[in-house]
Specification:
The complex is a heterodimer of chains A (274) and B (771). Chain A is mainly β. Chain A has helices spanning 2-16, 221-235; strands at 20-24, 35-42, 47-54, 71-76, 79-87, 90-94, 102-109, 112-119, 126-134, 143-151, 159-166, 169-170, 178-181, 189-193, 211-219, 257-271. Chain A contains two helices and 16 strands. Residues 1-11 of chain A have low confidence and may be disordered. Chain B has a 22-stranded antiparallel barrel. The radius of gyration of chain B is 27 Å and the shape is globular. The chains are: A mainly beta (274), B mainly beta (771). Chains A and B meet through helix 1, strand 1, strand 14, helix 2 and strand 16 of A and helix 6, strand 41, strand 42, strand 46 and strand 47 of B.
């Protein structure tokens, strides 16, 4: 947040004078490919999906290389389930799991073992979605904006991620990665406004109203740390104006990239203008 | 045995040597405006190698045998004065020196006396007369003493156009910046592009890169000691200028002629005036400006007492309509009292306040929020200088600083449901006592040695202990005057000179510095939202040890000054923060930090041409700055960002005709050490860079050429005025300010490197006047 503000200010300041932005050639080293683990366990649907790939050189244009012959297990408080290979680096399983349990992921990639531990967060449900029309001004074009309402469970640390999609296409640019913790609103009725503008039905142009889908995802503290540090990296892609960037904080051991994310999600939809 | 007694003689300060000695003391001033001249040389012509220097208040004291003497006063740029005296009792003798008219035509640079470079026992010291800065071309024509210092060896700019600086491999927060003794916490405007120091209001600028005398302490790397002008004691004086970015005006005048004077100086930018011209209601109600206000007054009560009041206030204001705003600034105030206990005992008592704060808001009164943070110091300082005889100058004193840290205060709008707890205030008490002696052992050897004992105590507020994971183990509330976590530091300082002959000398120094206040910043340039933390049970004081040796020589009758210095510096308890650390509004910010060590070493060459129609200097530094942190770069040593191996600057000033001066700078340095990705992967729909080694890559090398022309317009009575044209980065080199890596929006899935260069060719014009 702070970095973003500073960067914006710097660019505004510099823009007042002169500044010059150009795509350049940079000679980067190629690190050895590393295993990338994208492991998700949805504790509400009890579905586990693990996607294994390898990192590439930074400017690589070739396809992502899936890892198809790994052995993947998830252990819930001593009960181990094998996560079976499906296709193209994807492994799936149905795993009974509930709040308060501890989930352990292990991946054996040709003898190299990677593990991760995560708590299972509780489900926090959305109460409602509301929307409100805002007039345009010269800073931004107006439109409808959507507010989420929910009650944060008191005296437990909660971590959230919000995902939004409009008419079935999800918002997925780096700045759309929104995670937060309840440090400042523990136990309160929370209203979170989204900084996105949507359009209502236009009878003149004959266009329908936007259909907005909001997912309130309850995540573990480890996932929060991961996404929060990931956001710093992908929003300000490093390299000069901010202090030295580093890899996101992961719960995976053994040097793998990625995350073991255990979560529960609640989804609501809204037709704009209703 | 004989040798031993000789040594004892050397190191004993003879208090009662000869009853037939008397003391000559007084003040050295400028004849035209009555400003105290600090660092003027007082020589006794008939006794070789005997003399004294005037101190920062223009006072000197010299003890001599009774009899007839010829006293000679020398100060560069001023006419030499000789006076025959008959010393039969303690005598008060003040001098007023006239500016040397001859030297007004040619340009003299950066020294107080012709061979100071060689004869002084100091090393690692850079001194600037703010008037000399006027000939050096700068960005937007805004003269800036800090940017001129960056052209000298061992001092590096924090980035393109930036007024932050690195000294001998240290960080930008390891510089103690003093304005009339009061520390200035954020010495930059407009996110670092300008320093807060308006050179019209300044008298003297000294930067200690090492070998700092024991009266200075509190930062690991350097001391930048800036003194404001006292104000003209003879008549009304006006100085000012109109530039592209800002205008300035300084007024000085006597309060009572020759007894007291004042100076007020202001500077303001006016970019926002142009914003008002916009038809857009958001833009024309936006603000973007900074200003500085300096004021000083002094009054000589009698021969033994003199008082000074000085203050600085400056602010930056940014705002987009009433939707978003950011403003920050420093304020300092200093009260000083000079008292002569005797003609051999000079005392200065200072009380000063420093205050730095920033405020930020977004949104309106209902749905918005505001964040503010502050650091406030109250200081008391006592310095006593004792001039026992012509071979010793002893300085002793002490200092007490009360720090208040308000790390962040969040205020939210009436409609906002959450009510964040504010991190607790923190308090610290920093103290120091010191003793040092500038000892002229014989004609060849001079040593300046001393010891400083510094202390830092936490008091009041809340303290925490943490487990290895950074989770809070215990939380203790302390009463406001409950002292805990007491830290002590013993800081020996020594520098010595061996004079080979009148124009060659060898010097060596050792310095240890403790730093008790630390800056956490996640941006490279000095940023208003930087967070300061005191030393606590978790954060240890930073310690820097530096050794340096140097060779100094003057050639061709002091026309050329050449110096070579080599240094090695060890840094302990350096601070970085953990990956993904949350610095803002974090009560337990210590748990987000990691600690390591650093070292830096290098050689600095400076060749200056001091006299003639062409003056200037070449400065070259070959150096490394390295850091080691557990958990960063696998615990291996890595280059700090400012590890610019080669750093070259060339500055030339040439007076073509009586009224016309041209000048140029050329700057070249190795690109900053930066972290670039060595791979990438895809997760959750994001393209993520993968980093291996810290600062394993380099920006392209930096270079640029600046040119300037100054034309002195025809003088009218005492009204002197000039027109300056300057051009920054003449050949438009696109030096990287940042290089970022991102997905190509035209070809999703492909990635590219994007370089941002801030300033291409920037011409500027300014008009300056002096009355």
């Amino acid at each position: 947040m702070k970095t973003k503000i500073i960067l914006t200010l710097l660019l505004v300041t510099a823009g007042l004078f002169t500044s010059c932005i150009e795509v350049i050639d940079v000679d980067l080293n190629d690190s050895d490919p590393r295993l990338v683990i994208e492991a998700n366990l949805n504790a509400r649907t009890q579905q586990a999906e693990v996607r294994l790939t390898r990192s590439r050189s930074y400017f690589a244009v070739e396809e992502i290389e899936p890892v198809n012959n790994a052995i993947v297990f998830i252990d819930i408080d001593g009960t181990t389930t094998s996560v079976e290979f499906q296709e193209e680096g994807i492994y799936k399983a149905q795993i009974p799991v509930s709040v308060g349990q501890t989930a352990t992921l292990s991946v054996d990639d040709g003898g190299a073992i990677y593990t991760a531990i995560s708590e299972v967060p509780g489900l926090v449900e959305l109460d409602s979605l509301t929307n409100e029309f805002v007039e345009s001004n010269s800073l931004f074009e107006g439109g409808w904006f959507v507010t989420l309402h929910w009650v944060d469970p008191a005296r437990v640390p909660n971590n959230y991620r919000v995902k939004i999609s409009k008419n079935d296409s999800s918002y997925n640019s780096p700045s759309d990665l929104q995670v937060f913790e309840d440090e400042f609103f523990d136990g309160l009725e929370f209203e979170g406004s989204l900084f996105y503008f949507f359009e209502g039905a236009d009878s003149v142009a004959g266009t329908p109203a936007d259909r907005v889908k909001v997912e309130l995802i309850s995540i573990s503290a480890a996932s929060y740390k991961y996404y929060n540090s990931l956001s710093d990296i992908i929003v300000n892609q490093g390299g000069g104006s901010v202090a030295a960037p580093a890899n996101p904080v992961t719960n995976l051991t053994g040097g793998a990239l990625g995350l073991f994310n255990v979560f529960q999600a609640d989804t609501m939809e809204l037709m704009i203008g209703e | 045995m004989k040798n031993l007694s000789f040594l004892l003689l050397l190191f004993t300060i003879p208090i009662l040597t000869n009853a037939q000695n008397f003391t000559l003391s007084g003040n050295i001033k400028d004849a035209e405006n009555g400003e105290d001249l600090m660092g003027a040389t007082i020589l006794v012509k008939n006794i070789p190698n005997t003399g004294a220097f005037s101190n920062e208040y223009g006072f000197y004291s010299l003890t001599l045998p009774a009899g007839d003497h010829t006293i000679m006063i020398r100060y560069i740029g001023y006419e030499q004065v000789e006076k025959n005296i008959s010393l039969t009792e303690n005598q008060n003798l003040s001098f007023e020196l006239k500016l040397d008219n001859h030297t007004l035509d040619t340009i003299q640079i950066t020294a107080r006396r012709d061979n100071e470079n060689v004869t002084s026992s100091e090393m690692g010291v850079l001194r600037l007369d703010p008037r000399e800065v006027r000939n050096v071309p700068v960005l937007f024509g805004e003269r800036d003493i800090v940017k001129t210092l960056q052209l000298l060896p061992g001092v590096k700019s924090a980035g393109e156009g930036n007024s932050g600086f690195y000294v001998r491999g240290g960080g930008t927060d390891q510089n103690l910046i003093l304005l009339d003794e009061a520390p200035v916490y954020n010495a930059s405007h407009l996110l670092g592009f300008f320093s807060v120091f308006n050179s019209d209001a300044l008298k003297d600028v000294t930067l200690y890169k090492g070998g700092m005398p024991a009266e200075y302490g509190g930062r690991a790397s350097s001391v930048l000691d800036i003194r404001m002008k006292d104000g003209n004691k003879k008549r009304l004086g006006l100085t000012g200028g109109i530039g592209l970015i800002s205008s300035r005006l300084t007024i000085e005048a006597p309060i009572v002629k020759d007894k007291g004077s004042f100076m007020v100086s202001g500077r303001r930018t006016y970019a926002d005036v142009f914003l008002k011209l916009s038809k857009d209601s958001i833009i024309n109600s936006s603000t973007l400006y900074f200003y500085d206000f300096n004021a000083k007054a002094n009054y000589t009560i009698n021969d033994k007492n003199r008082i000074f009041l000085s203050g600085y206030f400056g602010r930056d204001v940014f705002g987009f309509s009433d939707f978003f705003g950011l403003n920050w600034g420093n304020a300092t105030a200093t009260v000083r009292w000079n008292h002569l206990f005797s003609d051999k005992l000079f005392s200065n008592t200072s009380f000063f306040v420093s205050d730095y704060d920033y405020k930020f808001f977004i949104g309106d009164n209902e749905n918005g929020f505001g964040l503010s943070s502050r650091i406030q110091d109250f200081n008391f300082k006592e310095d006593i200088t004792w001039f026992p005889n012509s071979r010793h100058t002893v300085k002793l004193g002490g200092q007490l600083i009360h720090h208040t840290f308000i790390p962040g205060k969040l205020e939210v709008g009436s409609e906002v449901t959450f009510r964040p707890p504010n991190p607790p205030r923190r308090f610290g008490l920093e103290g120091a006592v010191y003793l040092r002696d500038d000892f002229r052992i014989n004609n060849r050897f001079t040593v300046n040695y001393g010891l400083r004992l510094s202390t830092f105590h936490n008091m009041g507020g809340v303290s925490y202990t943490f487990d290895n994971e950074g989770n809070v183990l215990t939380e203790t509330n302390h009463d406001r005057w409950d002292f805990f976590e007491n830290n002590f530091g013993l800081e020996p300082r020594a520098s010595g000179r061996y004079l080979v002959n009148e124009s060659n000398s060898i010097k060596a120094s050792y310095t240890r510095n403790f730093q008790y206040i630390h800056l956490l910043s996640n941006s490279v340039s000095t940023s208003p939202t930087d967070v300061y933390v005191p030393t606590t049970n978790v954060v240890k004081p930073q310690i820097a040890d530096q050794v340096a040796v140097g060779y100094f020589t003057n050639l061709k009758d002091d026309m050329f000054e050449v110096s070579f210095e080599a240094y090695y510096k060890w840094l302990q308890n350096q601070i970085d923060y953990k990956n993904g650390a949350d610095l803002i509004l974090n009560s337990t910010v210590e748990s987000e930090l990691v600690f390591g060590k650093g070292r830096s070493f290098g050689g600095e060459l400076l060749i200056k041409k001091m006299k003639g129609k062409m003056t200037g200097w070449i400065s070259y530094t070959l150096s490394r700055a390295l850091r080691t942190f557990e958990g960063i770069n696998n615990g291996n040593e890595y280059p700090a960002r400012q590890d610019r191996i080669h750093d070259l600057s060339l500055t030339l000033i040439y007076q073509i005709a009586k009224r016309l001066t041209v000048s140029g700078n050329f700057v070249y340095y190795t690109g900053d050490a930066v972290t670039f990705p060595s791979g990438r992967y895809d997760l959750d729909g994001f393209t993520i860079p993968f980093y291996t080694e810290r600062n394993g890559y380099r920006f392209p090398d930096y270079h640029r050429l600046d040119l300037g022309i100054i034309y002195d317009l025809k003088e009218r009575k005492k009204w002197r005025h000039s027109l300056s044209l300057s051009c920054y980065n003449v050949y438009g080199r696109e030096n990287a300010f940042s290089i970022t890596f991102e997905e190509n929006t035209d070809f999703p899935g492909q990635t590219q490197a994007v370089r941002t260069a801030l300033f291409k060719t920037i011409p500027s014009i300014s008009y300056d006047f002096e009355f």
